[in-house]
Amino acid sequence: MCHEKVPQNIPELNVEEPVLFYHSQSFYSQKVLLVLYEKNINFLAYEVNVAAGEQYTPWFLDLNPKGEVPVLKIGSLVVPESAQIINYVERNFQQEPHRRLLPRDLMPQQEKKILRLSNLISKLPIGTISMGSFIHADFSPNPKPPFIAPVRRALVTSDRVMSNQLKCYAKDNPIYAEVLLRKSDFYARKRDIICKRDDYVKLLGRLEEILEEIENELRSHGNADWWLCSSHFTLADCCLGILLYRLYALGLEDYLWGKRPHIGAYFARLYARESFLRAIPSRISTLRTMWNKTPANYKLGVGLLSASSVIAAVLAMRK
Ligand SMILES: N[C@@H](CCC(=O)N[C@@H](CS)C(=O)NCC(=O)O)C(=O)O
Protein backbone atom coordinates (compact mmCIF):
# COMPACT_ATOMS: atom_id res chain seq x y z
CA MET A 1 0.00 0.00 0.00
CA CYS A 2 1.22 3.52 -0.74
CA HIS A 3 -0.60 5.30 2.05
CA GLU A 4 -0.97 4.83 5.76
CA LYS A 5 -2.17 6.63 8.88
CA VAL A 6 -4.87 8.63 7.10
CA PRO A 7 -8.66 8.14 7.28
CA GLN A 8 -9.55 5.32 4.91
CA ASN A 9 -13.22 6.39 4.75
CA ILE A 10 -14.83 9.70 3.96
CA PRO A 11 -15.08 11.65 7.22
CA GLU A 12 -18.61 11.78 8.59
CA LEU A 13 -19.56 15.39 8.22
CA ASN A 14 -23.27 15.64 8.88
CA VAL A 15 -23.64 19.19 7.77
CA GLU A 16 -25.95 21.07 5.47
CA GLU A 17 -23.39 23.69 4.61
CA PRO A 18 -20.72 23.30 1.89
CA VAL A 19 -17.57 21.38 2.83
CA LEU A 20 -14.25 22.44 1.34
CA PHE A 21 -11.59 19.74 1.14
CA TYR A 22 -8.41 21.75 0.98
CA HIS A 23 -4.82 22.15 2.10
CA SER A 24 -3.66 25.35 3.75
CA GLN A 25 -0.43 25.57 1.70
CA SER A 26 -2.10 24.78 -1.62
CA PHE A 27 -2.21 27.70 -4.04
CA TYR A 28 -5.50 26.53 -5.60
CA SER A 29 -7.07 25.98 -2.18
CA GLN A 30 -6.04 29.47 -1.07
CA LYS A 31 -7.68 30.98 -4.14
CA VAL A 32 -10.95 29.19 -3.42
CA LEU A 33 -10.75 30.16 0.27
CA LEU A 34 -10.34 33.81 -0.70
CA VAL A 35 -13.38 33.58 -2.99
CA LEU A 36 -15.51 31.91 -0.29
CA TYR A 37 -14.52 34.52 2.31
CA GLU A 38 -15.07 37.40 -0.12
CA LYS A 39 -18.49 36.04 -0.98
CA ASN A 40 -19.35 35.56 2.67
CA ILE A 41 -20.23 31.87 2.25
CA ASN A 42 -20.38 29.70 5.36
CA PHE A 43 -18.56 26.44 4.91
CA LEU A 44 -16.79 23.71 6.80
CA ALA A 45 -13.11 23.25 5.98
CA TYR A 46 -11.59 19.77 6.01
CA GLU A 47 -7.80 19.83 5.69
CA VAL A 48 -6.62 16.87 3.61
CA ASN A 49 -3.33 15.39 4.81
CA VAL A 50 -1.57 15.77 1.47
CA ALA A 51 1.86 14.97 2.96
CA ALA A 52 0.57 11.54 4.05
CA GLY A 53 -1.18 10.83 0.73
CA GLU A 54 -4.77 11.20 1.99
CA GLN A 55 -5.68 12.58 -1.46
CA TYR A 56 -5.03 9.11 -2.92
CA THR A 57 -7.26 7.18 -0.52
CA PRO A 58 -10.21 5.55 -2.29
CA TRP A 59 -12.73 7.87 -0.60
CA PHE A 60 -10.93 10.99 -1.78
CA LEU A 61 -10.40 9.62 -5.29
CA ASP A 62 -14.19 9.09 -5.40
CA LEU A 63 -14.48 12.86 -4.89
CA ASN A 64 -11.68 13.78 -7.30
CA PRO A 65 -10.07 10.97 -9.32
CA LYS A 66 -7.06 13.23 -9.91
CA GLY A 67 -6.28 13.16 -6.18
CA GLU A 68 -6.10 16.94 -5.90
CA VAL A 69 -7.43 19.60 -3.59
CA PRO A 70 -9.52 21.71 -3.51
CA VAL A 71 -12.88 19.95 -3.81
CA LEU A 72 -16.18 21.47 -2.75
CA LYS A 73 -19.01 19.20 -1.62
CA ILE A 74 -22.52 20.47 -1.10
CA GLY A 75 -24.82 17.62 -0.07
CA SER A 76 -24.44 15.04 -2.84
CA LEU A 77 -22.98 17.56 -5.30
CA VAL A 78 -19.20 17.33 -5.69
CA VAL A 79 -17.27 20.09 -7.46
CA PRO A 80 -13.53 19.47 -8.05
CA GLU A 81 -11.08 21.95 -9.66
CA SER A 82 -10.63 25.50 -8.36
CA ALA A 83 -11.96 27.16 -11.54
CA GLN A 84 -15.14 25.08 -11.48
CA ILE A 85 -15.66 25.71 -7.77
CA ILE A 86 -15.26 29.46 -8.28
CA ASN A 87 -17.69 29.44 -11.23
CA TYR A 88 -20.18 27.41 -9.27
CA VAL A 89 -20.19 29.63 -6.19
CA GLU A 90 -20.21 32.82 -8.23
CA ARG A 91 -23.33 31.63 -10.08
CA ASN A 92 -25.12 30.18 -7.06
CA PHE A 93 -24.34 32.58 -4.22
CA GLN A 94 -25.27 36.05 -5.46
CA GLN A 95 -27.97 37.30 -3.10
CA GLU A 96 -27.38 38.96 0.27
CA PRO A 97 -25.46 38.17 2.47
CA HIS A 98 -23.31 37.04 -0.46
CA ARG A 99 -21.78 39.34 -3.00
CA ARG A 100 -20.79 39.08 -6.63
CA LEU A 101 -17.17 38.95 -7.68
CA LEU A 102 -18.37 40.23 -11.02
CA PRO A 103 -20.57 43.09 -9.76
CA ARG A 104 -23.60 44.16 -11.79
CA ASP A 105 -22.46 47.77 -12.16
CA LEU A 106 -19.33 46.94 -14.16
CA MET A 107 -18.95 48.38 -17.65
CA PRO A 108 -18.86 45.60 -20.28
CA GLN A 109 -15.20 46.30 -21.09
CA GLN A 110 -14.32 46.16 -17.38
CA GLU A 111 -15.97 42.76 -17.02
CA LYS A 112 -14.14 41.57 -20.12
CA LYS A 113 -10.83 42.74 -18.65
CA ILE A 114 -11.51 41.02 -15.32
CA LEU A 115 -12.28 37.75 -17.05
CA ARG A 116 -9.27 38.02 -19.36
CA LEU A 117 -6.79 38.80 -16.58
CA SER A 118 -8.27 36.14 -14.27
CA ASN A 119 -7.94 33.64 -17.06
CA LEU A 120 -4.34 34.63 -17.86
CA ILE A 121 -3.34 34.30 -14.21
CA SER A 122 -5.21 31.02 -13.76
CA LYS A 123 -3.41 29.43 -16.69
CA LEU A 124 0.03 29.98 -15.14
CA PRO A 125 1.62 26.64 -14.19
CA ILE A 126 2.15 27.58 -10.57
CA GLY A 127 3.46 24.13 -9.55
CA THR A 128 6.19 24.36 -12.18
CA ILE A 129 7.04 27.95 -11.20
CA SER A 130 7.27 26.94 -7.54
CA MET A 131 9.35 23.81 -8.03
CA GLY A 132 11.63 25.57 -10.56
CA SER A 133 12.35 28.32 -8.02
CA PHE A 134 13.69 25.67 -5.62
CA ILE A 135 16.06 24.34 -8.27
CA HIS A 136 17.17 27.67 -9.83
CA ALA A 137 17.41 29.30 -6.43
CA ASP A 138 19.36 32.37 -7.63
CA PHE A 139 16.05 33.92 -8.84
CA SER A 140 14.51 33.70 -5.38
CA PRO A 141 17.11 34.71 -2.82
CA ASN A 142 14.62 35.43 -0.06
CA PRO A 143 12.15 32.53 0.34
CA LYS A 144 9.73 32.72 3.28
CA PRO A 145 8.52 29.92 5.54
CA PRO A 146 7.58 27.18 4.85
CA PHE A 147 9.96 27.26 1.85
CA ILE A 148 13.15 27.08 3.90
CA ALA A 149 16.11 25.11 2.46
CA PRO A 150 15.38 21.64 3.96
CA VAL A 151 11.70 21.92 3.00
CA ARG A 152 12.62 22.96 -0.54
CA ARG A 153 14.95 19.99 -0.81
CA ALA A 154 12.24 17.64 0.51
CA LEU A 155 9.70 19.05 -1.98
CA VAL A 156 12.12 18.62 -4.90
CA THR A 157 12.78 15.02 -3.83
CA SER A 158 9.09 14.17 -3.49
CA ASP A 159 8.37 15.82 -6.84
CA ARG A 160 11.11 13.70 -8.42
CA VAL A 161 9.54 10.44 -7.25
CA MET A 162 5.95 11.55 -7.86
CA SER A 163 5.67 10.06 -11.33
CA ASN A 164 6.52 6.57 -10.02
CA GLN A 165 4.48 7.08 -6.88
CA LEU A 166 1.44 7.80 -9.04
CA LYS A 167 1.94 4.52 -10.90
CA CYS A 168 1.78 2.86 -7.52
CA TYR A 169 -1.45 4.70 -6.61
CA ALA A 170 -2.86 3.67 -10.00
CA LYS A 171 -2.15 0.03 -9.19
CA ASP A 172 -3.88 0.39 -5.82
CA ASN A 173 -6.93 2.04 -7.42
CA PRO A 174 -7.64 0.33 -10.76
CA ILE A 175 -10.88 2.26 -11.37
CA TYR A 176 -8.95 5.53 -11.40
CA ALA A 177 -5.81 4.09 -13.01
CA GLU A 178 -6.24 5.93 -16.30
CA VAL A 179 -6.40 9.41 -14.80
CA LEU A 180 -3.61 8.65 -12.31
CA LEU A 181 -1.33 7.35 -15.06
CA ARG A 182 -2.02 10.47 -17.12
CA LYS A 183 -1.01 12.52 -14.11
CA SER A 184 2.13 10.39 -13.76
CA ASP A 185 3.08 11.33 -17.36
CA PHE A 186 2.41 14.98 -16.60
CA TYR A 187 4.84 14.85 -13.65
CA ALA A 188 7.52 13.26 -15.80
CA ARG A 189 7.15 16.04 -18.43
CA LYS A 190 7.02 18.78 -15.79
CA ARG A 191 10.31 17.48 -14.40
CA ASP A 192 12.01 18.17 -17.76
CA ILE A 193 10.84 21.80 -17.83
CA ILE A 194 11.81 22.44 -14.23
CA CYS A 195 15.32 21.09 -14.63
CA LYS A 196 16.22 22.97 -17.83
CA ARG A 197 17.25 26.48 -16.87
CA ASP A 198 16.39 27.92 -20.32
CA ASP A 199 12.84 26.58 -20.09
CA TYR A 200 12.48 27.97 -16.60
CA VAL A 201 13.75 31.40 -17.73
CA LYS A 202 11.17 31.32 -20.55
CA LEU A 203 8.44 30.54 -18.03
CA LEU A 204 9.51 33.47 -15.82
CA GLY A 205 9.48 35.65 -18.96
CA ARG A 206 5.83 34.72 -19.58
CA LEU A 207 5.02 35.50 -15.97
CA GLU A 208 6.78 38.87 -16.30
CA GLU A 209 4.72 39.74 -19.39
CA ILE A 210 1.53 39.22 -17.41
CA LEU A 211 2.86 41.19 -14.45
CA GLU A 212 3.89 44.00 -16.79
CA GLU A 213 0.34 44.20 -18.11
CA ILE A 214 -0.95 44.24 -14.53
CA GLU A 215 1.53 46.98 -13.57
CA ASN A 216 0.33 49.09 -16.53
CA GLU A 217 -3.29 48.48 -15.60
CA LEU A 218 -2.68 49.54 -11.98
CA ARG A 219 -0.71 52.60 -13.13
CA SER A 220 -3.56 53.65 -15.44
CA HIS A 221 -5.88 54.21 -12.44
CA GLY A 222 -3.81 57.18 -11.28
CA ASN A 223 -4.44 57.83 -7.61
CA ALA A 224 -7.93 56.32 -7.59
CA ASP A 225 -8.52 53.88 -4.77
CA TRP A 226 -9.08 51.00 -7.17
CA TRP A 227 -8.22 47.34 -7.05
CA LEU A 228 -7.04 45.66 -10.25
CA CYS A 229 -9.88 46.57 -12.62
CA SER A 230 -12.47 48.35 -10.52
CA SER A 231 -13.20 50.02 -7.21
CA HIS A 232 -14.64 46.62 -6.18
CA PHE A 233 -12.49 43.68 -5.16
CA THR A 234 -13.35 41.28 -7.99
CA LEU A 235 -12.54 37.82 -9.27
CA ALA A 236 -9.35 39.22 -10.85
CA ASP A 237 -8.20 40.39 -7.40
CA CYS A 238 -8.78 36.93 -5.91
CA CYS A 239 -6.57 35.44 -8.64
CA LEU A 240 -3.91 38.16 -8.45
CA GLY A 241 -3.82 38.36 -4.63
CA ILE A 242 -3.06 34.67 -4.21
CA LEU A 243 -0.60 34.64 -7.12
CA LEU A 244 1.39 37.51 -5.56
CA TYR A 245 1.30 35.81 -2.18
CA ARG A 246 2.79 32.61 -3.66
CA LEU A 247 5.50 34.54 -5.56
CA TYR A 248 6.37 36.41 -2.38
CA ALA A 249 6.52 33.19 -0.33
CA LEU A 250 8.83 31.68 -2.95
CA GLY A 251 11.09 34.74 -2.61
CA LEU A 252 10.59 35.98 -6.19
CA GLU A 253 9.25 39.41 -5.24
CA ASP A 254 12.45 41.43 -5.82
CA TYR A 255 12.99 39.79 -9.17
CA LEU A 256 9.39 40.19 -10.30
CA TRP A 257 8.08 43.40 -8.82
CA GLY A 258 11.14 45.18 -7.48
CA LYS A 259 10.84 47.34 -10.60
CA ARG A 260 7.02 47.37 -10.59
CA PRO A 261 6.04 49.74 -7.76
CA HIS A 262 2.29 49.59 -8.38
CA ILE A 263 2.27 45.84 -7.87
CA GLY A 264 4.35 46.31 -4.70
CA ALA A 265 1.83 48.83 -3.34
CA TYR A 266 -1.10 46.60 -4.34
CA PHE A 267 0.48 43.63 -2.54
CA ALA A 268 0.98 45.68 0.65
CA ARG A 269 -2.68 46.77 0.50
CA LEU A 270 -3.86 43.15 0.51
CA TYR A 271 -2.63 42.76 4.08
CA ALA A 272 -5.34 45.13 5.29
CA ARG A 273 -8.05 42.91 3.81
CA GLU A 274 -9.57 40.42 6.25
CA SER A 275 -10.53 37.82 3.63
CA PHE A 276 -6.96 37.73 2.32
CA LEU A 277 -5.52 37.28 5.81
CA ARG A 278 -7.93 34.41 6.43
CA ALA A 279 -7.11 32.72 3.10
CA ILE A 280 -3.33 32.63 3.48
CA PRO A 281 -1.86 30.02 5.83
CA SER A 282 -1.60 30.81 9.53
CA ARG A 283 1.80 30.75 11.26
CA ILE A 284 0.81 27.53 13.03
CA SER A 285 -0.03 25.74 9.80
CA THR A 286 3.19 26.98 8.21
CA LEU A 287 5.20 25.69 11.19
CA ARG A 288 3.37 22.36 10.97
CA THR A 289 4.23 22.08 7.26
CA MET A 290 7.88 22.92 7.97
CA TRP A 291 8.01 20.30 10.71
CA ASN A 292 6.35 17.60 8.56
CA LYS A 293 8.55 18.32 5.55
CA THR A 294 11.87 18.63 7.37
CA PRO A 295 13.86 15.40 7.14
CA ALA A 296 14.39 13.60 10.47
CA ASN A 297 18.23 13.88 10.36
CA TYR A 298 17.96 17.67 9.97
CA LYS A 299 15.55 17.89 12.93
CA LEU A 300 18.02 15.79 14.95
CA GLY A 301 20.85 18.15 13.95
CA VAL A 302 18.83 21.21 14.94
CA GLY A 303 17.84 19.49 18.21
CA LEU A 304 21.47 18.64 19.04
CA LEU A 305 22.57 22.15 18.12
CA SER A 306 19.92 23.70 20.40
CA ALA A 307 20.77 21.31 23.23
CA SER A 308 24.49 22.05 22.91
CA SER A 309 23.78 25.82 22.89
CA VAL A 310 21.77 25.44 26.10
CA ILE A 311 24.57 23.39 27.72
CA ALA A 312 27.18 25.94 26.56
CA ALA A 313 25.06 28.79 27.97
CA VAL A 314 24.65 27.00 31.33
CA LEU A 315 28.40 26.28 31.53
CA ALA A 316 29.22 29.89 30.67
CA MET A 317 26.89 31.13 33.41
CA ARG A 318 28.59 28.85 36.02
CA LYS A 319 32.03 30.34 35.34
N1 LIG B 1 -6.26 22.16 -11.64
C1 LIG B 1 -6.40 21.94 -10.23
C2 LIG B 1 -5.03 21.87 -9.61
C3 LIG B 1 -5.11 21.45 -8.14
C4 LIG B 1 -3.75 21.07 -7.60
O1 LIG B 1 -2.74 21.02 -8.31
N2 LIG B 1 -3.73 20.78 -6.30
C5 LIG B 1 -2.50 20.38 -5.65
C6 LIG B 1 -2.25 21.30 -4.46
S1 LIG B 1 -1.97 22.96 -4.99
C7 LIG B 1 -2.68 18.99 -5.10
O2 LIG B 1 -3.73 18.62 -4.63
N3 LIG B 1 -1.60 18.23 -5.11
C8 LIG B 1 -1.56 16.92 -4.50
C9 LIG B 1 -1.11 15.90 -5.48
O3 LIG B 1 -1.10 16.16 -6.71
O4 LIG B 1 -0.77 14.80 -5.01
C10 LIG B 1 -7.25 23.06 -9.62
O5 LIG B 1 -7.29 24.16 -10.22
O6 LIG B 1 -7.90 22.84 -8.58
TrEMBL record:
<feature type="coiled-coil region">
    <location>
        <begin position="197"/>
        <end position="224"/>
    </location>
</feature>
<keyword id="KW-0175">Coiled coil</keyword>
<dbReference type="Pfam" id="PF13409">
    <property type="entry name" value="GST_N_2"/>
</dbReference>
<comment type="similarity">
    <text>Belongs to the GST superfamily.</text>
</comment>
<dbReference type="GO" id="GO:0000266">
    <property type="term" value="P:mitochondrial fission"/>
</dbReference>
<feature type="domain" description="GST N-terminal">
    <location>
        <begin position="16"/>
        <end position="97"/>
    </location>
</feature>
<dbReference type="GO" id="GO:0005741">
    <property type="term" value="C:mitochondrial outer membrane"/>
</dbReference>
<dbReference type="InterPro" id="IPR010987">
    <property type="entry name" value="Glutathione-S-Trfase_C-like"/>
</dbReference>
<dbReference type="InterPro" id="IPR036249">
    <property type="entry name" value="Thioredoxin-like_sf"/>
</dbReference>
<dbReference type="GO" id="GO:0006626">
    <property type="term" value="P:protein targeting to mitochondrion"/>
</dbReference>
<protein>
    <submittedName>
        <fullName>Putative ganglioside-induced differentiation-associated protein 1</fullName>
    </submittedName>
</protein>
<dbReference type="GO" id="GO:0008053">
    <property type="term" value="P:mitochondrial fusion"/>
</dbReference>
<dbReference type="Pfam" id="PF13410">
    <property type="entry name" value="GST_C_2"/>
</dbReference>
<dbReference type="InterPro" id="IPR004045">
    <property type="entry name" value="Glutathione_S-Trfase_N"/>
</dbReference>
<dbReference type="InterPro" id="IPR036282">
    <property type="entry name" value="Glutathione-S-Trfase_C_sf"/>
</dbReference>
<feature type="domain" description="GST C-terminal">
    <location>
        <begin position="156"/>
        <end position="296"/>
    </location>
</feature>
